């Protein structure tokens, strides 16, 4: 079993960024869940990465790619850093995508990145959706804006999306309200989908994917849904 590759796309604009903070919390929870699943395997079955883990994490900070994304939109050619980021998303076993909410939707930078992504790059990829905003009133943007976007890209968003408002970080402490429970629930759902290993995912070496499709009922069963 190869290590799971987890790519994180963060569209936060500031430093520090609450969007990146949420992304980091989601990564911690997902890695913990995936490592726990690997721990259930025998040492002969598992192939951990250096440091004892079974997950390889790559973080894509869109603020650092803003210029290359704009150039790609008008020229059709990605720069080196953007090309590497796009390939990281395409080859990932799972994706965490987090954006700030501006004007009741995802940020323009977030949308522009996925606009230049290959249309088949996310076919069948499990995705955990996250967003941040000044008030919880923006939380529905996850359902009417982000989820349709990833459905259009034929990804597989997990049922639980995570929104963090300003009050969730009160006093700089993430352990407020029910944010930790939402993060943990979403992480468990993503880990379950990764463990189900849908056959529709594109092979990492770029070879043609197996056209066998895992029945939807089997995918629900992997999530524990009756």
Automatic annotation (TrEMBL):
InterPro entries: CE1759_FMN_reduct, Flavoprotein-like_sf, FMN_Rdtase-like_dom, NAD(P)H-dep_FMN_reductase. This is FMN reductase. Pfam families: FMN_red. The keyword ATP-binding does not apply. GO terms for molecular function: oxidoreductase activity. It comes from the Bacteria. Keywords: Flavoprotein, FMN, Oxidoreductase. Residues 6-169 form the NADPH-dependent FMN reductase-like domain.
């Amino acid at each position: 079993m190869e290590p799971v590759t987890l790519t994180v796309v963060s569209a936060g604009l500031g430093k520090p960024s609450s969007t990146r903070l949420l992304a980091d919390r989601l990564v911690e929870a997902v890695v913990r869940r995936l490592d726990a699943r690997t721990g259930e395997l025998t040492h002969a079955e598992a192939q951990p990465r250096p440091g004892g883990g079974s997950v390889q994490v790559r973080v894509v900070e869109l603020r650092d790619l803003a210029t290359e994304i704009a150039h790609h939109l008008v020229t059709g050619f990605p720069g080196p850093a953007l090309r590497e980021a796009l390939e990281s998303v395409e080859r990932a076993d799972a994706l965490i995508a987090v954006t700030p909410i501006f004007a009741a939707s995802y940020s323009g930078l977030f949308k522009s990145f996925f606009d230049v992504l290959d249309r088949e790059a996310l076919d069948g990829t499990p995705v955990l959706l996250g967003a941040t905003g000044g008030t919880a009133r923006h939380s529905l943007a996850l359902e009417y804006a982000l989820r349709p976007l990833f459905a259009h890209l034929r990804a597989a968003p997990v049922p639980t999306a995570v929104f963090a408002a300003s009050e969730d970080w009160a006093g700089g402490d993430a352990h407020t309200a029910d944010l930790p429970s939402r993060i943990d629930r979403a992480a468990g759902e993503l880990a379950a989908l990764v463990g189900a290993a849908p056959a529709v995912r594109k092979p990492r070496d770029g070879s043609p994917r197996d056209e066998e499709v895992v029945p939807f009922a089997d995918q629900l069963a992997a999530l524990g849904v009756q």
